[in-house]
Specification:
This protein has 10 helices and 7 strands. The protein is of the alpha/beta class. The chain has a 5-stranded mixed sheet with strand order 3-4-5-6-7, sandwiched between helices. The chain has a two-stranded parallel sheet with strand order 1-2. The chain is globular. It comes from Fusarium albosuccineum.
Length: 296
């Protein structure tokens, strides 16, 4: 969906970055098409491995060196039919990529965007949108107990359950984060493109019968086009402004949070999630994120 998104944004930006996990070749191919269609736009492909903290730090450093950044979309995500751990962090891979690493990248980039805004590099508050999913409404993640250890437990692991849980936690954390960030500095929200046909999400190297033959028919019949999915991203960037700060944006409108977020138990869990996440990311980033991002 990156190509469709870049086409829609091309009139807004003088430089566009396409981000691919690990492999540059797919990004290069997409970039070449965009360069031919929009010769006046500087399209660049940067390597980013969302499972590697060092890669995330290196990517943010390159962003810090840019003159200005108006819009950022974090759309990395993964699913897996089997439980597996990251060889460096030790966390379950879907939880690592969809939540922990995405939140690290979000926090570091939000700090970069805030600094560029304060330096007068942007006319309006920059917008940072993170791609979520309405599968969060299906999550049955219990509010009681520590969060990280339960997400990291192989007992009862299921592909869609853990994906939905990771997206629920993402929205809960972003809602908390937005309360610490002034929308005059950075606007941050979560966007749901919906079920979109033609993406690689959920595909495995050794698919079973249902994934190989049944799922493609279902997605083709019910899924949105790439253009429609990308337009939800554009709405999250341009359509809601400051009123969308901390919101879940889906179907081109601000939508309710998951039911858990409106309960005392859910609010208590959100506080635990915040503490566990910030503790992990202090270690991962090697710097005081709060000092650079939350200071007024």
């Amino acid at each position: 969906m990156s190509a469709e998104l870049e086409k829609d944004l091309s009139w807004e930006s003088s430089m566009l970055g396409i981000i691919y996990k690990q492999l540059l070749a797919p990004g290069d191919a997409t970039a070449e098409k965009l360069r031919k269609e929009f010769p006046n736009v500087d399209v660049q492909v940067w390597l980013l491995d969302m499972a590697d903290y060092n890669s995330i730090e290196a990517f943010v450093k390159r962003c810090r060196d840019l003159d200005r950044i108006d819009y950022v979309i974090l759309n990395a995500g993964t699913q897996s039919g089997t439980f597996g751990r990251h060889d460096k962090t030790g966390y379950e891979l879907v939880f690592q990529v969809n939540y922990i690493s995405t939140m690290l990248l979000c926090l570091l980039l939000a700090s970069v965007l805030k600094n560029k805004n304060h330096a007068g590099k942007t006319a309006n508050p920059p917008v940072l949108t993170i791609v979520g999913s309405d599968t969060m409404y299906l999550s049955k993640f219990a509010a009681a107990g520590p969060v990280f250890s339960r997400m990291d437990d192989p007992t009862g692991y299921e592909k869609m359950k853990n994906y939905a849980d990771s997206k629920l936690l993402l929205m809960i954390f972003i809602r908390q984060l937005a309360e610490h960030i002034n929308p005059d500095d950075v606007i941050i929200n979560v966007c749901n493109p919906g079920l979109v046909a033609g993406t690689g999400l959920g595909k495995s190297p050794n698919p079973g019968f249902a994934e190989k033959y049944v799922a493609p028919i279902f997605i083709k019949a019910l899924g949105r086009t790439l253009q429609s999915g990308a337009s939800n991203y554009i709405h999250a960037l341009l359509g809601e402004g400051k009123r969308g700060h901390g919101s879940f944006i889906s179907d081109w409108a601000i939508k309710p949070y998951a039911r858990l977020s409106y309960t005392k138990e859910g609010n208590d869990m959100a506080e635990r999630l915040w503490q566990e996440t910030m503790e992990e990311l202090r270690f991962a980033s090697g710097r005081g994120i709060e000092q650079s991002l939350f200071a007024q």
